[in-house]
Fold this protein.
Amino acid sequence: MARDQKEIEQGTTFVPKFDPQGLLSAVVQDVATDRILMIAYMDREALDATISTGVAHFHSRSRGRLWKKGESSGNILNVEEVLVDCDQDALVLRCRPAGPTCDTGKVSCFYRMLEDGILRPVNS
Amino acid sequence: MARDQKEIEQGTTFVPKFDPQGLLSAVVQDVATDRILMIAYMDREALDATISTGVAHFHSRSRGRLWKKGESSGNILNVEEVLVDCDQDALVLRCRPAGPTCDTGKVSCFYRMLEDGILRPVNS
């Protein structure tokens, strides 16, 4: 294994790897229930804002700008832990949400399950 | 809200939305522990293979081909539930893993936590 790869996988230095679009994936998980709430994308600016404020910020791909989750609704995500994966191109944000995370008003964006080709409500 | 958008968010029809690269994000979560194990990407082919076999398949961006997770190591992911998000561009695969998910031998790819700018092992 190349020395760089070893350092990325085993080291203590945080060297986030952004994709060609300048983004990495961030999964939001409720720290109290372990439920997955949403997936979004971060550029360097969003990552820095998240780390410096302790509140989740993303890069809105549709609006092409920094997006503080909950900036309109007030349903912010307080970040308690940031987990980093082996190749440092994905994060898990373990959060305490201030309210429902999904814009539909649901607790999680993952409120449906695929069953025999049909979407059905998740029991929760 | 446009009728299409309403159907996507509230309907029972599965109409997965792939990005311009033909991919959607899939988060793998252990169905027994709720721990997040990895994040990967699926194209239409990987999604179809996952649904038809009940074993997680992804699109390897580095190798540019269909990738059955565990094809070399044997550490496959048996998919018990597929959750779909509001805009149908991301999935959660709730799985029963046959072994450690991470190629490093760790249970999860998310084995480190960012703390004061430094990566530290997750207690687990």
User: Anything to note?
Assistant: The beta strands of chain A are 24-30, 36-42, 57-60, 65-68, 77-84, 90-97, 112-115, 118-121. Chain A has a mean pLDDT of 95. DSSP finds two helices and eight strands in chain A.
